Amino acid sequence: MVISKIEGKQIGIKDSLAINQEFENEIAPYRARLQEDMNTIISYAPKTYSKTDGDLNTAIGNLMADIVFKQGNSIFNKRTNKNIDAVILNHGGIRSIISEGNITTETAFQVMPFENSIVVVALKGQQIDSMMQYLSKAKKAHPVQGITLTLDKDYSISEALIQGKPIIKDKTYYLATNDYLYDGGDSMLFFKPNDTTYYLNYKIRNAMIDYFKKVDTINPKIDNRFTQTR
Amino acid sequence: MKRRTFIQQSTAATALVTLGGFGFQSCNSIIKTRKITILHTNDVHSHIDAFGPDDAKNANQGGVARRATLVQNIRNENPNTLLLDAGDIFQGTPYFNYYGGELEFKLMSKMKYDAATIGNHDFDNGIDGLYAQLPHANFKFLSANYNFKNTVMDTHVKPYHVFIKDGIKIGVFGLGVKLDGLVDKKMYKETEYLDPIEIASDMSRILKEEEACDLIICLSHLGYYYSKDAKKVCDLMLAKATKNIDLIIGGHTHTFLPKPTVAQNSEGKNVLVNQVGCYGINLGRIDFYFDAEKNKTANGTSIIV
């Protein structure tokens, strides 16, 4: 037997198609359990926050970096007696806006659907410099915490501080990020080589949920951590 | 149906793509035509439910319980149907975060999927997370260029499978995308990625010569085409570099094609390349009609897309 004719097409799954009740019945308990959690109100947003509101730092990005710092440091400090000096995440990793109104568990899943976890990396001052260079070239509101980076009108670095102080070349700093970026995501290649890597096994999304549960009303703001002078 | 039917033209002179010459009409075309229907999805990404009415892009589209109705209708019309998925079954909605892919596999089994290949996101809970969900999957996992020998998936994934429908032998093999740089090594562990074009050449030879298949299908998660990286291996490159493959069902790039692509293989013969976007918004349908050899030389193979 040989092929004599081929017909190919694509059929849209539209709402004009009937729902197969057997499938619906199988899905229903899973959905119900999910919605129970997803609809749980865990905090409140006084306004809508988007990653496009702001130039080199945004309220939602600052919130994410602050959460990774606060939630991550409580674990990191307990395990190592050390403290996180700075945080860097990626702008693209913010997957949704936070809408004005109630924050639910689903909000955390929308903003951070991935399973990425917090990683703390021990880096020398030179590598912190490389990170600053990366940020100045990316010209993007990658969420950061613990650093102050000021660019001039040509996007050259005019000031780069960590914990409010100049970067010391040979000093070891503890930089928190997520495992995706640590492994070279978004071309962030300054994490390696390093002295030590601490895998906290703490998902960013769980850190967000834990934070939201503690905070009645979030209040993130655009600030001076990463700016450009005109 | 409102769908427009496109007639693919490979030469200006003929309305249909004709492989055989214009020989004399066969006198004894008594042998009945057989029809095999191939249905396919890709990159469903845990979209169990349809998009909500307020979704800015895909309002009210998709949903497994609706796809089930459509698939059943098509099976009623032609029982000689295969249902295939080109990978990235996992990750994209809280269903995956919560249940780790259990419901995705259960529903695919219930819908009687025949086979799926493995996408990069199917490693998102690690290779152990994928392995843990296998008891819920009543369909075959096919991947010829992932060597799982030193992983828990060893023996649970086959390079190819030959399905027989209405006496027609259908060889299906799977291909996966390069994992290094895309998936954390911690997730895929000792899974070894092999050159997809070399492997596809071996597979199509085995399926054609050793298994004597009438129809050869590649389930690929390589991606349709990369405009910014033209050297990156993709389905269009695969089609061009190989022979004996009739259909490449793709995934990974979430490509919405207005219609299946008719590409030419290394022998200048037609290969169909299709991909249906993502999130279960569409179902691909390719119908293959089979005739006795002598009828074919008279009429050629027409491709209507």
Summarize the helices and strands and which ones pair or pack:
The complex is a heterodimer of chains A (230) and B (305).
Chain A: E1 2-12, H1 21-38, E2 41-45, H2 59-80, E3 86-88, E4 101-104, H3 105-111, E5 117-124, H4 125-138, E6 144-145, E7 147-151, E8 157-162, E9 165-166, E10 172-178, H5 179-182, E11 196-203, H6 204-214, E12 226-228
Helix pairs in contact in A: 2-6, 3-6
Chain B: E1 34-41, H1 64-77, E2 81-85, H2 94-99, H3 102-110, E3 115-116, H4 126-133, E4 140-141, E5 146-147, E6 160-165, E7 168-175, H5 185-188, E8 192-193, H6 196-210, E9 215-220, H7 235-241, E10 247-249, E11 261-264, E12 270-274, E13 282-291, H8 293-299, E14 302-304
Parallel strand pairs in B: 1-2, 2-3, 3-4, 7-9, 9-10, 10-12
Antiparallel strand pairs in B: 1-13, 5-8, 6-7, 11-12
Kindly describe this structure.
The complex is a heterodimer of chains A (230) and B (305). Chain A is α+β, with helices and mostly antiparallel strands and 230 residues long. Chain A has a single domain (50-228), classed as 5'-Nucleotidase, C-terminal domain (5'-nucleotidase,  domain 2, Alpha-Beta Complex). Helix content of chain A is 33%, strand content 28%. Chain A has 6 helices and 12 strands. Chain A has a 5-stranded mixed sheet with strand order 6-3-10-5-11. In chain A, helix 2 (59-80) crosses helix 6 and helix 3 runs antiparallel to helix 6. The longest helix of chain A has 22 residues, at 59-80. With 305 residues, chain B is α/β, with parallel strands linked by helices. Chain B has 8 helices and 14 strands. In chain B, the strands form 3 sheets. Chain B has a 6-stranded mixed sheet, with helices on one face. The longest helix of chain B has 15 residues, at 196-210. The two termini of chain B are 15 Å apart. Classes of the chains: A alpha+beta (230), B alpha/beta (305). At the A-B interface, strand 1 and helix 1 of A face helix 1, helix 2, helix 3, strand 13 and helix 8 of B.
